[in-house]
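Following the same procedure, sequence and fold were stored together, as reproduced here.

>
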Amino acid sequence: MDPIYVTGHRNPDTDSIVAAMAYAALRNALGDREYEAACLGRVSDETQIVLDRFGFKPPKLITNMYTQVRDLDFDTPPLLSAAVTVGRGWKVLQQQKHLSSVPVANEDGTLYGLLSRENVAGYNMAAINSAYLEQVPLFNVLSVLDGKVLNDAGESTDFIGGEICIALPQNRENLLFQSSNSVVLCGDQPDILKRALELNVNCVVLCQTEMPEELRNLPTKTCVITTPLDAYRAVRLLFQAAAIGNICRTEGIVCFHLNDRLDDVRERVLEFRDSCYPILDEEEKVVGMLTRYHLLRPRRKRVVLVDHNEASQSVPGLEEADILEIIDHHRLADIQTNNPIYVRNEPVGSTNTIIAGMFQDRGLMPSEKMAGMMAAAIISDTVMFKSPTCTDRDRRTAERMARIANVSLEELGRDIFSASLGNKSTEELFMSDFKEFHIAGYDLGVAQITCMDSPAMLERKDEFLAIMERLTKEKGFSMMILMLTDVLLEGTQLIYLGNDETISQAFGIQPRGNCLFLPKIMSRKKQVIPMLSALWG
């Protein structure tokens, strides 16, 4: 069963990461084992502190939800070695009737070539016309003939080849084999066998008979093989002893990789029009075969969104995935779905408050470690209950989770907000909690850094503005905002790039030098974004 990814927004904060992990744990505990927590970006230092504190590893990192080759129900035929006989290769082709070719691999599993029915048919026709057997391994010959070696010369022979001759009884001597470079097939014909041994032909195949005792000690370099098959079948099967590596297609092969996007694959299939294509993994090893049929009904990736419901904040390729659920505490935005889905959106300060309620609804208590992480996430997202988004329910839920985990909320808060910010680069700080918004035709970028010493952060103002200018040019933002939210001052130092009048009207304070202090402003989603939304209509 393919996983159902539970993921928060890009540049994930602690609430986003823990919400994904907690909801996946809830669903898996109820028997839905395919749910898997994921994240869309680097785990912040604050979140890592929480994970380390309670003994969890970060969720799986995913970069997109595009439909890829790995999402197709492609075929996985046997992977043949280039040394396999043509006869065995043909049997595999007959078993894989829906495929026109099967993959041939090197010893390390990488692609050597493709074996098709046309390759086998062409080889057989050429062999019939030439009646000459190229050098093939003795083991291959014994395999196709179900044969065994009868003499010492055969035990020292590794390869067999030469002019094929069926030595039927006849009067005209010149029609029999004349050259030692021959492979002679005969029955119970001691005179023919003796002549072949004296001539030192490459090989004698005794069909449905054994070697006479009087000839076993005759000095010879000829390999003698016996087979239970008649001469007609034996001569046909001799040509099937050749290695498929000699006849398969090895050039001009179009391959696809597991991570290739389906749109790109469709374009190349239309361009080359082959009947089937090898599929390779990240190490260039063959994992399957792709046909046009597989492109008709691909499996879409499945995802549950937590802590966001805005396309610009979600995983790239979301439009190609099936969104199953949304659990969030932000404003409703622009995500569309193909089918009706379950949505739970509540006006609380943390997504983990909602998920804790879902644990309760299903009569399940989170584990001690998970409850501790959920308490830490609520503290983080409500800024120690000082954010205007914080509700009594957030506080009660955090207290309950702390009791289950037997931890102190005050101690958790100190651990979280004492995370070292000074050792981070300006770029890392800025992008650690950055979100994009689209409001009434305006494109807005808002970053938030929660700290306990905003004056120290302001010393990097020029560096922050340089980053904001670059991103504005790259993404065409109408405005860029950086919130330095100070837990101790219970307010935000706001650095912005954009129209001064817009900032003045939105917050009722005249800015100076692209900066202003907003007392009691702690929340991006409940205070900053709503003010700009009201201004822009």
